[in-house]
């Protein structure tokens, strides 16, 4: 009996030892597997610094130009040229920077620009009148008498004449026609008349000034040798009865001219007043 019990104890002890060894081996295998898994997980974490893949700008301590990437190209895709070359390169366009411009000629402030704009008052006063055009007059029989021709012809085949009489002391200046002393033939100092179908000292029709501005622009010579240059603007003449008093005819016709010019001063020394 003792022998049997002894054997059973021995077997029980061996069984316990085997069980303990089995448990110990199992625990060791599990620890190894856990360690292997931990190492595998650790190997998945990339701890090697990669300056090209890092998105942390503060960790990148390598200095680069403001518009250049680490691979040597600028932000616009250009090659390894230093940044800012295109911005700082000087230009040498001497033609546009240093070429002098020609100065403009100064205008004379005392000479107004000529204008062809119609005068509303003249257009109204000349309504119904025959408009004439007078070429520049160059004839002068006497210092105080200037005679010229005009177109169109008023009537018939005889000559139509415009006459300008300048009385008294001839001076450069501007004078109004048809007003003051110039409103009648008996005392006018600057007188303008038109003779239609003129023959010798008579004419078929006579016209005398009622409006206009006469300007003497130049006087040359002395006494009987005096000659003048000048012009008349917005001239209006009305039909008169005869060549003595030039009394206006009621409801008579009228003649108008926008401009009349005369130049009796010439460069010919043989002409009186041109010495």
Secondary-structure element sequence?
A: HHHHEEEEEEEE
Main sheet summary? 8 strands, mixed
Number of helices: 4
**Which geometry do the CA atoms define?**
rod-shaped
Q: Would you tell me the structural class of the helices and strands?
A: alpha+beta
Residues in β-strands, percent = 25-35%
Instruction: Catalogue the unreliable spans.
Output: 42-66, 72-79, 81-85
**What Rg, in angstroms, do the CA atoms define?**
60 Å
Q: Percent range for helical residues?
A: 10-25%
Distance between the termini: 185 Å
Number of beta-strand segments:
8
The pLDDT mean sits at 74
Report on the structure:
It is a single chain. By secondary structure, this protein is α+β, with helices and mostly antiparallel strands. The protein has a domain at 120-263. It contains four helices and eight strands; from the N terminus they run H-H-H-H-E-E-E-E-E-E-E-E. It has helices at 2-44, 85-88, 94-98, 120-125; strands at 130-131, 145-149, 159-166, 173-177, 190-199, 202-220, 227-240, 254-263. Strands 1, 2, 3, 4, 5, 6, 7 and 8 form an eight-stranded mixed sheet that branches. Strand 6 and strand 7 (227-240) form a beta hairpin.
What is the element layout, followed by pairings?
Layout: H1 2-44, H2 85-88, H3 94-98, H4 120-125, E1 130-131, E2 145-149, E3 159-166, E4 173-177, E5 190-199, E6 202-220, E7 227-240, E8 254-263
Parallel strand pairs: 1-8
Antiparallel strand pairs: 2-3, 3-5, 4-6, 5-6, 6-7, 7-8
């Amino acid at each position: 009996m003792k022998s049997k019990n002894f054997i059973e104890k021995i077997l029980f002890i061996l069984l316990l030892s085997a069980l303990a060894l089995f448990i110990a081996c199992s625990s060791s295998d599990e620890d190894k597997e856990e360690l292997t898994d931990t190492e595998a997980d650790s190997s998945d974490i990339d701890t090697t610094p990669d300056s090209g893949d890092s998105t942390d700008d503060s960790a990148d301590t390598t200095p680069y130009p403001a518009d250049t990437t680490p691979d040597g190209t600028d932000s616009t895709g250009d090659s390894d040229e230093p940044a800012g070359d295109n911005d700082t390169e000087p230009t040498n366009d001497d033609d546009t920077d240093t070429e002098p411009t020609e100065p403009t000629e100064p205008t004379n402030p005392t000479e107004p620009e000529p204008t062809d704009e119609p005068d509303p008052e003249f257009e109204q006063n000349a309504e119904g009148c025959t408009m004439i055009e007078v070429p520049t007059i160059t004839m002068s029989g006497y210092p105080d008498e200037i005679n010229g021709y005009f177109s169109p012809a008023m009537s018939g085949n005889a000559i139509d004449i415009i006459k300008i009489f300048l009385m008294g002391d001839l001076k450069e200046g501007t004078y109004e026609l048809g007003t003051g002393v110039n409103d009648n033939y008996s005392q006018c100092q600057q007188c303008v008349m038109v003779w239609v179908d003129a023959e010798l000292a008579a004419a078929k029709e006579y016209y005398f000034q009622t409006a206009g501005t006469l300007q003497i622009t130049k006087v040359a010579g002395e006494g009987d040798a005096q000659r003048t240059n000048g012009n008349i603007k917005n001239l209006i003449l009305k039909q008169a009865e005869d060549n003595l008093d030039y009394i206006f005819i009621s409801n008579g016709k009228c003649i108008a001219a926008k401009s009349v010019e005369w130049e009796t001063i010439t460069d010919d020394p043989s002409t009186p007043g041109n010495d």
